[in-house]
Amino acid sequence: MILLDGKVASAAVKESIKQETDVLLANGKRAPHLAAILVGNNGASETYVASKVKNCEEVGFQSSLIRFDSDVDEETLLNQIIQLNNDTSVDGILVQLPLPKHISEAKVIETISPNKDVDGFHPINAGKLVQGLPSFIPATPYGIMLMLEHYNIQTKGKHAVVIGRSNIVGRPMSILLSSNLPYGNCTVTLCHSHTPNLNELCLQGDIVVAALGRPGFVKAEMVKEGAVIIDVGITRVTDETAKKGFRIKGDVAFDEVAAKAAAITPVPGGVGLMTIAGLLKNTLQAYKASIGV
Ligand code: GUN
Question: Nearest Cα to 94, choosing from 161, 139, 143, 41?
């Protein structure tokens, strides 16, 4: 069994980004710049955004964190995005989701300039992805593709089962795995909450991507011997014995599934780290387009 180690794979991606950035800086160019917007103080969102900012520093990017209280009105938030769209020193904009109920996520996403949409959530980027045109790929599916590439997991002609159809992970993942790409060309089954025979379908998967947000959902009896298992789950589960009072749990029952799998991502230390690698790649891509290199 191969452990698909997010620390190792993301370090390799980050090293290549850093090297490219160092050359640009040595040639007198400005640093790539990511602006992150965080609304409220959701614990998980705080952690993710802090990690994104820290990783920017590690590869030589500039970052800005713009915070709003959870009762910020939608117009104020949209105006801040418009200001960042017009700021030529900013390459990438991300608004951490979820947002408070009174703010329309769709409106927020559509206000971000598609050229700075490093999350790849704007309908223009989502549409380009569907048509196989160059676009920003949502960071988590992008990170998973980078993980498959790092470990040279063969995908052509394989049956990939994706569980979960979110715009952030499942749906773009299903499109990438079915696309004519070096680590694509799968036959894809996209399962969701209304799939009646999910266990049977999952059992047929040569590759299984679990992205439904239910801890331990994928059990050994749902997995084919020798399958490649990608666990996108990152649910906080209360645990009084843990220092922080919770543990991060994946969507896969790791120990029992690992015993059958050819390769599997751990949680934590798997896909989460690759998401950041995907985001950094997108930010570098936005920067290069912006300065014309
Ligand atoms: N919330 C959960 N995942 C993501 C992500 O990839 N980007 C943003 N902006 N918010 C998220």
Answer: 139
Quickly list H helices, the chain: 6-26, 43-58, 74-86, 105-111, 123-130, 139-150, 170-178, 198-203, 254-258, 271-291
119 Cα to the center of ligand 1, angstroms: 7
Domains of the chain: 30-114 (3.40.50.10860), 139-272 (3.40.50.720)
Q: Say which residues have a Cβ less than 8 Å from residue 289's Cβ, sequence separation at least 6.
A: 115
Judge if the beta carbon of residue 140 lies within 6 A of ligand 1: yes
Q: What are 263's strand-pairing partners?
A: 2, 228
pLDDT digit string (tens) for the chain, length 293 residues: 999 999 999 999 999 999 999 999 999 999 999 999 999 999 999 999 999 999 999 999 999 999 999 999 999 999 999 999 999 999 999 999 999 999 999 999 999 999 999 999 999 999 999 999 999 999 999 999 999 999 999 999 999 999 999 999 999 999 999 999 999 999 999 999 999 999 999 999 999 999 999 999 999 999 999 999 999 999 999 999 999 999 999 999 999 999 999 999 999 999 999 999 999 999 999 999 999 99
- Cβ contact 149:65 at 8 Å: no
* Cβ–ligand 1 contact at 97 (below 6 Å): yes
Task: Tell me, rounded to whole angstroms, the distance of Cα 251 from its chain centroid.
Answer: 15
Can you tell me which atom of ligand 1 is nearest the CA of 98?
A: 1
Report which protein residue has its CA nearest ligand 1's atom 6: 139
- Is there an atom of ligand 1 within 6 Å of 96 CB? yes
